[in-house]
Amino acid sequence: MLRLLSLLLAFASLSTAQGVPQNSGTSGQKHPFTFEDMMALKRIGDPQLSPDGRWVMLSAIDVNLAENTRKPHLWLVPAAGGDAKQITSGEAGENRGRFSPDGKSFLYTSSAVGGSQIWIEGFDSASGAPSGQARQLTSISTEADGGIWAPDGKHILFVSELYPDCKDDVCNKARDEELVKSKIKAKMFTRLFYRHWSSYTRFKRSHLFVIPPEGGTPLDITPGDHDVPSFSLGGQDLYAISPDGQEVAFTSNIDEVEATSTNNDVFVVPITGGTPKKISISPGSDSTPLYSPDGRYIAYRSQARAGYESDRFRLLLFERKSGTITDLTKNFDRWVEAFTWTPDSSAIYFAGEDRGGSPLWRVKLSGGDPEKAIPDTNDEPVVSPDGRTIFFSRQSVAAPNEIYKASLGESGAAEAQQLSHLNDAVLSQIAMSPLESFEFTGAEKTKVQGFLLRPPGFNAGQKYPVKFLIHGGPQGQWGEEWSYRWNAELMAASGYVVILINPRGSTGYGQKFIDGINGDWGGKPIVDLMNGLNYVESAYPFVDKERECALGASYGGYAINWLLGHTTRFKCMVSHDGMFNTVSAFGTTEELWFNIWEFKGTPWTNPTTYKKWSPNQYVTKFKTPTLVVHGQLDYRLDVSEGFQLFTTLQLRKVPSKMLYFPDEGHWVLKPQNSQLWYKTVGEWVDQWVKK
After folding, report:
1. Distance from C-alpha of 140 to C-alpha of 142, rounded to nearest angstrom
2. How far is Cα 374 from Cα 361, in angstroms, rounded to an integer?
3. What is the 8-class DSSP label of residue 230?
4. Of 102, 136, 170, which residue constitutes the final position of a domain?
5. How does pLDDT run across 385-427, given as a tens digit for each residue?
6. DSSP bridge partners of 339
7. Which CATH number do you get for residue 607?
8. 627 and 553 Cβ atoms separated by less than 8 Å
9. Distances (CA, A) of 445 to 229, 516, 528
10. Per the count of CB atoms within 10 A, which of 101, 264, 399, 604 is most buried?
């Protein structure tokens, strides 16, 4: 689906707790972070380098709170440094900009005409500006997105969602029009995945199409009743084109029951269509294929264990001529995330979470383990055509993504330089707090990492209330990362100490640490969380342990529900999209592989584990005032989980409220809904713990 800065733990004992200046008040005219400040920030990403290496194109999303919209546009920044400039400004917005191989044009996705479609516009590299009139390349009724150029410039590949039994766009258009006109809205399901993430099935499949850049009729090169590419919530493309422009590699899951399978595989097919050939062999997930520039290899991410979406992501190398597969990260106990080749095909750079950060790593094809190349929290790497510079996005707890670059050499990378500065004006007015790392002993004497944020205008002689945040996943992590949905700086800005613990199950600490939560949701991870809070209370004298509120979403919501029945130490709680009843959660979720793995079977094959770790078994001990939050369109953890919890709290006469979003899923994304979320959560916490 989908960061963080690596901090030394040697100084994270009591000495760390006391190592920050005793008074860190705001300076100059800076003010505490506000929701309005956060909405004024541009959401930057997707850096793309021009073929001549002179320009970096990026996408920047503008949020209009009054209009309740988020709109992307394309920007350019000189690779050598300089001011960024916006190059598209259509009313519908534009994203996924991609330069043509000759650098004389670029494509993008826009909904200006006929829904989401691929557009092409000329580009003058000398001036760094569009040239000529933008033209619409696709007009397919099923819409188009995800466009990429073939390296030879002869084709453009894109994704469209269609009815698998339709042979042409005429059929697809007629089917869609018939559904719109029909007064009957009922659906007949004959298999699982009848709904996924935040929408019910439309009985369509994603397919890959190719079209000449001059235009014409798109060709479906992956026909059939399977999604190509597989479902994804973001990240690196799940398909690529060979350097000679003759072959496409893609990701698809062809298992009979997709709802219980993580078995994505990598296939190759001629760009003109034909019979796909599977090249991956793992029973786990294989995805994100990327050809080496010399065409000899396909690199891809792979997981070894079937049915486990949080197994270690390895970087595998498929030699196209011999079919030999090599694991480049055999001894690397971290996840491989977004990656890119060097232009000479001798090495790969990739992002990989590590102890609250996400450094960039380098692995050479000639041998050896991955080496840390660039620290901090980085993503989306791309190397310049001459191999001398790497460009990437970077974020921290105090700043959202900007584009950075670093010089590359045989001994590693030079210090990174910030290239884009689109958010500097807003951030320069805000008093952000630095993230502090600490370490403590968790369950089974395991060392666990946590983080802390002090409020702006901090005074060491004052006691502060606490917001204790529990992350979701559960395979995720807190650290030097930015979030618009659970922003730690915004949580601290109203006068709170914010505590963030990475318990068992968190990423960035090795696969054994991740696996420690499997079948043990209310066990070791909860001990880790409570031990971390105990440590903070003893090590930081400014923490008021009598005024603490616990908040969490997804697994964090589950943890809140579990804690409701096991402790009364908190003055209030916030449970967002949390699992309340493990059995009903199984029956209403869509990606069944997750529950089957985490609870070691189904409710009928392993009822003991489901009952043991179900928060609803402990409702007689619920006493803590709780705010429940849930979205109607959340099909990962059905809204009924929130309703069950709220009903229980009300009947038990526990002070409680429920914030219900009829138009949101697992994540609250609409700007005004987000504003309401922060306002409601903030007021709830203030009500119970802020004097």
Report:
1. 5
2. 7
3. P
4. 136
5. 999 999 999 999 999 999 999 999 877 778 999 999 999 999 9
6. 350
7. 3.40.50.1820
8. no
9. 43, 13, 10
10. 264
